[in-house]
Amino acid sequence: MIRSVVRGTGAALPRRIMKNADFEGMVETSDEWIAQRTGIRQRHIAGDDETTASLGEAAARAALANAGLTPDDIDLIVLATSTPNNTFPATAVEIQHRLGMHHGFAFDMQAVCSGFVYAVTTADLYIRGGLARRVLVIGSETFSRILDWSDRSTCVLFGDGAGALVLEAAEGAGTIADRGVLAASLRSDGAHKDKLFVDGGPSTTGTVGHLRMEGREVFKHAVGMITDVIEATFSQAGITAADLDWFVPHQANKRIIDASARKLGIEEQKVVVTVDLHGNTSAASVPLALAVAVADGRIKKGDLVLLEAMGGGFTWGAVLVRW
Ligand code: ACO
After folding, report:
1. pLDDT tens per residue across span 52-84
2. What is the position in ligand 1's atom list of the atom closest to the CA of 218?
3. Which InterPro entries does UniProt cross-reference here (predicted)?
């Protein structure tokens, strides 16, 4: 059977780093509060010349270089983002143009923080369905542009950045020993749409709006939803937590990551954590964490890697990949 195998990874971060202490003059908060409640120590914030498209392009170019490929080799670009450059066209199309691609097709996916997990699952289906041979899957966000910088309960949590993977069709035996995407489970439930949302949009206010979140409510649901969808993915693949080499969760809050790993019985040393360095970069958080763990030599060919995310909607999901 056809499998979607990871051929390359890449990442891009804005130049400017904002430390927790930099908030102290802006809102009533402290480095200690932010670090203790979230595990975040710093985040990158996009400058005027840095956008979701420019960061996405840079991450895509890094992933292509890592794969030893050029834009000519790509058939499809799937961009996960909730902070597009424009309401339309899709920012994926702008990235396609920036890469000098005049062939293939490109579109955006919007599942907030779960966007990258949704995008990998979608790209895998396009590959297995024979509609594309090589896909650039990108998560790119500039959440700094939709934050209310006077709201201490949200502005300290998010950052900007982009990460990308190249997925490529390869022949597999149909067992979990294959390399590539092995199992996936996606969920959403719009009953929770008002717990984490942006209070503007083209069809309602005609404005971009600002992020609003009932943090305690999100926290309350997060661990249960994350662990349920991971259990479903494990049972699809016929594995247990002990079979995993790496757990690469959405990087929103270290306490949610720790509680999820504990509940699933995943050992601490198998968990990739970058929330301290990047904050919550929404759809970019999982590919950014992947790029870090691949670059530093932790994730290697043949490793069994579990990706997970949960975000606005609510949306949530998990993907199992043999690297
Ligand atoms: N600095 C200092 N105090 C603060 C800050 C701050 N930055 N923000 C809030 N507080 C205060 C609150 O006002 C509150 O004060 P009060 O007790 O006087 O009312 C107190 O701290 C405690 O607030 P809580 O909200 O109960 O704090 P909690 O321990 O729940 O931590 C947090 C808040 C970090 C937001 C947590 O709830 C959380 O991580 N929630 C989940 C967020 C998340 O994971 N989102 C993921 C999806 S993101 C996406 O999809 C885009």
Report:
1. 999 999 999 999 999 999 999 999 999 999 999
2. 41
3. ACP_syn_III_C, ACP_syn_III_N, FabH, Thiolase-like
Tracing tokens 């994730």 back to the chain, one arrives at 299
Q: What backbone phi and psi angles, to 5 degrees, belong to 57?
A: -60, -45
Indicate whether 246 and 166 sit together in one domain: no
Q: Answer yes or no: do 89 and 122 share one domain.
A: yes
Q: Which residue has the CA at smallest separation from atom 24 of ligand 1?
A: 216
Whose CA is closest to atom 33 on ligand 1?
A: 215
pTM higher than 0.85, yes or no?
A: yes
- The verdict on 243 and 294 lying in the same domain is yes
Helix extents (H) in 167-284: 215-237, 254-264, 275-278
CB of residue 222 inside a 6 A radius of ligand 1: yes
Q: Could you read off the pLDDT of 98-152 as tens digits, one per residue? A: 999 999 999 999 999 999 999 999 999 999 999 999 999 999 999 999 999 999 9
285, 290, 292, 297: CA torsion to nearest 10 = 170
Determine whether the shortest distance from the Cβ of 196 to ligand 1 is under 6 A: yes
- Catalytic center residues: 113, 250, 280
